[in-house]
Amino acid sequence: MPLLADTMDMPDSLFVQLGVSIAHTPEARQAMNYYPAFRSSPVLRPLVCALGLALGASAWAADHGSAHANPAASAPAKATSAPAKVASTPAKAATQEVPETAVSKKTVPVDGLPTGSGNPMAEKIRAAMAGTVVASKKMTVTVEDKSPLPTRPAEASHAASPTARALASQRYNQARAAAVAGHSAGSTPTTSHAGGNTHGDEVHWAYEGDTGPQAWGKLKPEFNVCAIGKRQSPINIEDSSTLQGPAEPIQFAYQPSNASVVNNGHTIQVDVQGDSAITARGSNYHLLQLHFHTPSEEQINFKRFPMVAHLVHKSNEGQLAVVAVLLQEGDANPMIDKVWTYMPLDNGDRVRMPQGLLDVNELLPKDQRYYQFMGSLTTPPCTEGVLWMVLKQPITISKAQYKLFTQLYPSNARPVQPVNGRPVREAQ
């Protein structure tokens, strides 16, 4: 064989250097200790050379397959344990590259990877490299791991938190809307003039300041009619411009009723239960509630009264009808006295009156002739299409009764609105 033949004529010094340089292992050096005997035998010389080449090649492959070195360093870099570094990276692929100019004195052969370490990544690297002879100077090891990465509970919770917050916010808004709707539905009579609860709106309106009557139409789109409506209430009624003539009387069918008194933040209001009603223009209107304003919202020949009571009715067809009773100082009124006895002091508070105590007949004057016109609610949303009947004869309340109300609400009346050519009937 050419290799063996060449070694036969190789000088002794070169042979020794070749054996030592390519055989770094202790086994090769031990064989060289017997060099004097081998040199005298022409048969053993090629065998020793072959053994040195084999052991040197194995050591060189392990050295260049697992060592780590810095090519920019002037001195050899200190080797780092590859299994520990790879095992600490929780990735699905591990790649290890050795630069072409890297030189290392100390190596960790593939068989030196720890076994039974309990680290799945280290075991996969060992399995990928086992039994492989690396002949190149650049090694790439790829380990496929199809197992899903574990998700920490904290990260999962954090990732879901925006959705949870959105759902919580949505449920909060739905619960709040349901509560407001339930309050309005359950308190149908508790509005100033209609069946809805305008006092429960988020938009705050008042009788003075930036949210006073002059700004109602701008506070909310639904309040726009307060500013642009052509048949708004209250109005000033002039006898000289009314339609005077015969008119059907209002048929009052009020009965002693159960009731509750509520302070809704804008007035004192009495929610009426029972079958009290009126008949006007051939329709029946059920009494929902009554409330008070000071001074009177309506003017008669440009004159305001100290107070007015608005009795709010509603027909089966949804038509609203309001009877206005003007109040002036004089003798105490028995019905007002009963209501004031159960007057709640706090905003939103409600007090039940004793069963059957309320009798609205005690609030009516003897002369029940009236002014009649079409108007609107006098509080937001200022809905139009309301039938108004203002009794011409006022009733009396005592000075003490007047003072008690005005201590809570010194002024809660909307200014008069343009008539805009509306006909006003004056019943004779």
What Rg do the Cα atoms give? 52 Å
- Percent of residues in helices: 25-40%
User: What is the rounded distance between the termini?
Assistant: 145 Å
What is the general shape? elongated
Strand content: 15-25%
User: What structural class results from the helix and strand content?
Assistant: alpha+beta
**Largest sheet features:** 13 strands, mixed
How many E-type strands?
15
**Helix-strand pattern, N to C?**
HHHHHHHHHHEEEEEEEEEEHEEEEHE
Low-confidence sequence ranges: 1-25, 66-108, 132-137, 149-160, 166-201
Overall pLDDT level: 74
Given the structure, what is the number of helices? 12
Care to describe what's here?
It is built from twelve helices and 15 strands. By secondary structure, it is of the alpha+beta class. Strands 2, 3, 4, 5, 6, 7, 9, 10, 11, 12, 13, 14 and 15 form a 13-stranded mixed beta sheet that branches. Strands 1-8 form a two-stranded parallel ribbon. The longest helix is centred in the middle third of the chain and has 34 residues, at 153-186.
Quick synopsis:
By secondary structure, the chain is α+β, with helices and mostly antiparallel strands.
Give a quick set of tags describing it:
18% strand; 428 residues; alpha+beta; single chain
